[in-house]
Write a structure and sequence with these properties.
It is a single chain. The protein is an alpha/beta fold. It has one domain: Rossmann fold (3-Layer(aba) Sandwich). The chain is built from six helices and seven strands. The chain has a seven-stranded parallel beta sheet, sandwiched between helices. β1, α1 and β2 form a beta-alpha-beta unit. The longest helix has 29 residues. The structure holds NADP nicotinamide-adenine-dinucleotide phosphate (NAP).
Length: 234
Amino acid sequence: MTALKGKVAIVTGASKGLGQAIARRLAKGGANVVASARSTDKLEALAQEAPDRILAFPCDVTKSTQVQALIQFALQRFGRIDILVNNAGLGHFAPIDELSEEQWDEMMNVNLKGAFLACKYAIPHLKATEGHIVNISSVAGTEAFPNGGGYCASKFGLMALSDTLTLELKPYHVKVSTLCPGSIKTEFHHPKAYAMEAEQVAETVWTMVSAPKGVIYNQVIMRPLVPKNLLKKS
Ligand SMILES: NC(=O)c1ccc[n+]([C@@H]2O[C@H](COP(=O)([O-])OP(=O)(O)OC[C@H]3O[C@@H](n4cnc5c(N)ncnc54)[C@H](OP(=O)(O)O)[C@@H]3O)[C@@H](O)[C@H]2O)c1
């Protein structure tokens, strides 16, 4: 299927896990993909899988100058930006009084500021193409849990950013979608035994960005089904 033929997508956090699966899925769907993260070697290996479709560009999303360079790279190589997937993220899990200030700052900087920076510098170009922003939040962006204070705060913040962007960009026909997955089998943080495959979650991103022209998937929450033998009896 080549619904995204001629479209240009930037995917952050594409060196592994969900971001890598999203980059692969969008490339399979016909898009030219700029795959970005800090691990250059892993990005280069991904680009080798589809050299005509995936280009690697190293970028730390917490650094404004690097994010601006990423946007410029996509424009120079492809002349346009249609899709921005803000996927880069990480989590530290501990009670608030045990969470270090560095861990708090890192989550806010990557999960929230990184998305802000990428949006800030991509939006003028997304307006030009009537493009699409997909923010990868989490079930943790919809409900809090013990030990998740910093991570949940960063993802709740991302939900607020997404809602604001939805309203600000509506007049320009730039779509904004937020995906809130539950546990995924990646290196992120002890996935549940029955966690979703990254490819299953990437398929939802594909559904969002290939929606009909007049349709927006604003927000999707997706979780793995808990096996019956593990369901708590109430
Ligand atoms: N796994 C889950 O259960 C789960 C559930 C819900 C939501 N999520 C969300 O899904 C997204 C992807 O997570 P994942 O499970 O795929 O985790 P992962 O396997 O640990 O991958 C995280 C990605 O983020 C990148 N990254 C981290 N810091 C970065 C920075 N400063 N600048 C640029 N890239 C950075 C990493 O690349 P480098 O280290 O190479 O920079 C890597 O590509 C995250 O936003 C996460 O919060 C995950």
